[in-house]
Design a protein that fits this description.
- The complex is a heterodimer of chains A (500) and B (341).
- Chain A has 500 residues and is α/β, with parallel strands linked by helices.
- Helix content of chain A is 33%, strand content 25%.
- In chain A, the strands form five sheets. Chain A has a six-stranded mixed beta sheet with strand order 6-7-8-3-9-10, with helices on both faces. Chain A has a six-stranded mixed beta sheet with strand order 16-19-20-13-21-22, sandwiched between helices. In chain A, strands 2-1-4-5 form a four-stranded antiparallel beta sheet, covered by helices on one side.
- In chain A, helix 4 crosses helix 5 and helix 13 crosses helix 14.
- In chain A, 47% of the residues are buried.
- With 341 residues, chain B is mainly alpha-helical.
- Chain B has a two-stranded antiparallel sheet.
- In chain B, strand 2 and strand 3 form a beta hairpin.
- In chain B, helix 6 packs across helix 10 and helix 8 packs across helix 10.
- The longest helix of chain B is centred in the middle third of the chain and has 27 residues.
- Chain B starts with a helix and ends with a helix.
- The chains are: A alpha/beta (500), B mainly alpha (341).
Amino acid sequence: MPEPFLELIDIGKTYPGVVALDHVSLSVAPGEVIALLGENGAGKSTLMRVLGGVVPPSRGTIRIDGIDRTSYTVTDAIAAGIAFVHQELNLFDNLDVAGNVYIGREPVYGGPLRLIDRKTLRAKVLPLIARLGADFEPDTPLAELSLAQRQLVEIIKALSLDARCVIMDEPTSSLTLSETARLMQVIAGLKADGVSVIFITHRLNEVMQCADRAIVLRDGRMVGALSRDELNPAAMIRLMIGRDLRSIYVPPAAPPGEAVLDVVDAVTSTYPKRSVSLQLRRGEILGLAGLVGSGRTELARAIFGVDPLLAGGLQLEGAPIRIATPRTAIDRGIYLVPEDRKGCGLLLDLSIAENISLPDLAAHSRLGLVDTASETDNANRQRERLNIRATDVRTTVGTLSGGNQQKVVLAKWLSMRPKVLIFDEPTRGIDVGAKQEIYDMLRRLADAGVAILMISSDMEEVIGVSDRIAVMHEGRISGFLARGEFSEHNVLQLAVGHTI
Amino acid sequence: MHKKDLSLLVLILVVGAVVAFINPRFLLVGNLSNTANQVGMFGIFSIAEAFVIIVGGIELAVGSVIALLGVLFIDLIVNRDVDWILAFALIIAGGVLIGTVHGTLITKMKIQPFVVTLCGLLIYRGAARYYTEDATAGFGYGASFPMLEWLTAGRTNVLGFPLPHSVVALVIVAGIAWLVLHRSVYGRYFYAVGKNEEAARYSGINSDRVTISAYVICGGLTALSAVLIAMYTRSISPAVHGSFYELYAIAAAVLGGCSLRGGEGSIIGVVLGTILLQVLQNLVNLLGIPSSLNFAVMGTVILIGVLADQYLVQRRQRAPSVRGQVGAESKPATLERVSAE
């Protein structure tokens, strides 16, 4: 293997109160394919953002071609031949392929009008398309391309900048099997041309297939490196887990009761060929684990009536029900605490009291007029019960901290009679203290007879709070775990599609 | 009263005082009564517009609807001998129908409100002109509807002031609209949908129905003002009648604190906005400013008002705000972003 041209030495990155990267070193040689592994939040994306010049490191050295870089921006990274293929693709839907590749660098005829030289543009892009063997033309509108093709456009853009190292953040997470195979070929082709590739992935078989080595991060630290002949799933998973999880589990007061909600062969639009069946029981917290993009949020949205179910059905307390809108779900006692708290969970400009009463305003009204006294009374009760820290229930929700905002979402549903409560990432972006309060509330609700489904990507949370875990992988349930079988190893195995 | 409404009221009083100082004829009972009459007629369709703007929409067809329904109303009672009470009911129903169509196209067919109502603006104007063959519709000699005329265009002496009945209508409409928007369950839904439709949906609000009903209310109220304006002008040239009225309505709503992004605005503000616009109109006449500058004066004052408001908002944001924050709980925003990763 030739000498590395790119070295990250002892990189650290801290945000106020959070250590995102801690003494991480990485070197990249020409033509090397490196897989970057780790759980959600392990620091992979932060490391790649440092490499791409998007965020400056708090400490450490970036050395390119033997020269230490003191200041290092996105422009410097591009000039050094480091290209980022973004997870949420940064392309323009309203331009064609060539226009996207050379955006901001269009070849122009001389003269004050700076007309784009379309012929040269096409001539520059054609060989790059041929090099990747892509099945589109320079003038194909981007809007007509699939996600996989758009990814190729991003790679072409990288090549057009003479990239020596291409970074891909979960490039295969939304590709089909044949598209993934195609991308693997493209990566092999780049490697043959001496271009290095660093890719973040959760799919271990892809790592086996095309990586020269794998780097594993955990909690911002580099915990292991595996060379080509050491790459096997067991070794990778062993490195990815291994944290000491604090024991935060509080057992339920009574064993789970009868079934409250049955999800029978539910099909959502993200994975139209896969279906999900699961059962929520009275007094039980069912954790729903899985990788980002495995279809958990879509399932929650379908149960709550935000999106339609393509097939399959729901049974509430044994009787089949049809839920077309959130209103029907709410009227039946099925509530959702959504993942996107600020966009979907709350109206940030409204007050605490107004947010809490919104789904149940009829109960706080007389002759169609809002009974503000009743609204305020209820909000005050909930504020006390959930310990919402605000001077007044007429305070605007937008001024509260994340934890208190989440409590307001919860208060909204607790004012009514929940039968089924679905939480989508209930403690995302919430400080430790408020997290514990929300866990306590989950347990108290379960003990009061509510059936709870908790979607979470936080391993500590899934293992520490759930009574039972269902793991999703690419639109289906890859396995259930009973309390005795809980381990990071088992959850991760199922999440990447293996069996235990 | 909202702080914003209060500053608008102060502005009106200041402008009024300046005009009165320069030209005392401003305070003559006749002038005030006529200005009030204008406020009455314009206020009703401005409130109509506000409903739509509050749910995050826009209605550009107001002026054309006023022309079309005005023409139809006069035709019904003058030429077709329809009883005026029935004709009035038919016209209101027509306005409601137009609102329903607009609202349905916007929510169910997902066409942008600007486009839908722009098409409406063109269609109704064309229909009005075609219906009368571009002739002026009016009352012939001898045609007389004393009861209707008294109700719509009449004035009642209140403590020596001839109060136009259009103002009475506006007070009633504004009172009900205030109750609906600021006190009722449905009003809460209007603001919620206008602020964040997605979050409203997650709270079980049928946002399509709320949006459609805003357009229906707008259509109905516009029809009411169409009748009042027709009875006041007594003759309608369908090519120009009511033109630019939608812009008066939008201007009044914006002056009254409505945001074109939706979810904001108060009824009192809209009424005050209407008053300010009419006082400005009056100012142009009384101060001997060429009437061709009418729109330019109005545009300038609105622009200055909006700029001043923006300046105040920014200054408030720059000042460290303690209100509503809870010391121990507030964390730098960056932390949230990191842990949200």
